[in-house]
Amino acid sequence: xxxxxxxxxxxxxxxxxxxxxxxxxxxxxxxxxxxxxxxxxxxxxxxxxxxxxxxxxxxxxxxxxxxxxxxxxxxxxxxxxxxxxxxxxxxxxxxxxxxxxxxxxxxxxxxxxxxxxxxxxxxxxxxxxxxxxxxxxxxxxxxxxxxxxxxxxxxxxxxxxxxxxxxxxxxxxxxxxxxxxxxxxxxxxxxxxxxxxxxxxxxxxxxxxxxxxxxxxxxxxxxxxxxxxxxxxxxxxxxxxxxxxxxxxxxxxxxxxxxxxx
Amino acid sequence: xxxxxxxxxxxxxxxxxxxxxxxxxxxxxxxxxxxxxxxxxxxxxxxxxxxxxxxxxxxxxxxxxxxxxxxxxxxxxxxxxxxxxxxxxxxxxxxxxxxxxxxxxxxxxxxxxxxxxxxxxxxxxxxxxx
Lengths: 262, 130
Fold this sequence. Notes:
The structure holds two protein chains of two kinds.
Chain A: H1 3-17, E1 27-28, E2 33-34, H2 47-50, E3 69-80, E4 90-99, E5 104-110, E6 126-129, E7 139-146, H3 147-162, H4 174-186, H5 203-208, H6 212-222, E8 228-231
Parallel strand pairs in A: 7-8
Antiparallel strand pairs in A: 1-2, 3-4, 3-7, 4-5, 5-6
Chain B: H1 2-21, E1 31-40, E2 43-52, E3 57-67, E4 70-79, E5 87-93, E6 100-103, E7 109-112, E8 128-129
Parallel strand pairs in B: 4-6
Antiparallel strand pairs in B: 1-2, 2-5, 3-4, 6-7, 7-8
């Protein structure tokens, strides 16, 4: 039998049973590098394990990471500036997912019949794939998730794809999809509904409608005031949060007189 | 004193009203577009294709203002509830005297005319997107 295969299999088995060998760490699919150090302190008898930025002993061909840290999920939100007092809010919110070592794919729902290179999806509303490639969010939050969380995520994406044009609506626009997908994989609830105080249209409308603007504020808040941040999940597991999508809480500190819809 | 207060109130109201009447146009960062020039006969056209990068805004209308050697293309959005599409599909003839085309803000140049170079064959040196 090939010695490399045996060695790889042994290492895989060893990694699987050794607690704490693999931990969640952020991976940048664009650069192909980990952004944070492996939290595993390493073994002085095994020099490669001491390296903080290697994946599976720098041998991804023969060794897999069996802890199930399967990819990086990121949620983004952009706020479209209002030109005047009466303009509605615009913007866009979406997610991206990159399997470890794989290409980044974006998912977002659209309500303006966008131009899509895919003839099957061109001028259709609802879920579109890769329309956001190359765009950076004004606010973004990432998490490294495991296989189980990835399945939850893809289940949400599939549900939205199955809705067709109905994947986007005034009451469940892009920010609702993005936050729901994020929640399904991470268990973290990022509020997307307007604060009652931020709309003059009506408190009821503000409570019902999700917006990228509010999602952007929620992301920055979750990031501790920073535009970009990460959520660390133990072992890439979905957080056991009981927090669901709740109605907004009255907050008067960010009153902006914005008559927003989307 | 009362007169001054009334005057200040009126000025404020007029400012608000005129400010509100200003139509909002998109900036380059608000869109994903491709710019391509094409010759139709001997006439140079500029094609701008793409989409608004805001999932609930459609294109209301597009216009071009020409000032000297500069042309400025502006896309005005409207809420998607009004129908239409967020797709941007704009084709316009570049006048002979125009050497620069900008999108939204005049500082965002999306096309500039390539300087003509005399060649032995006498061919037009063509144009180049920026």
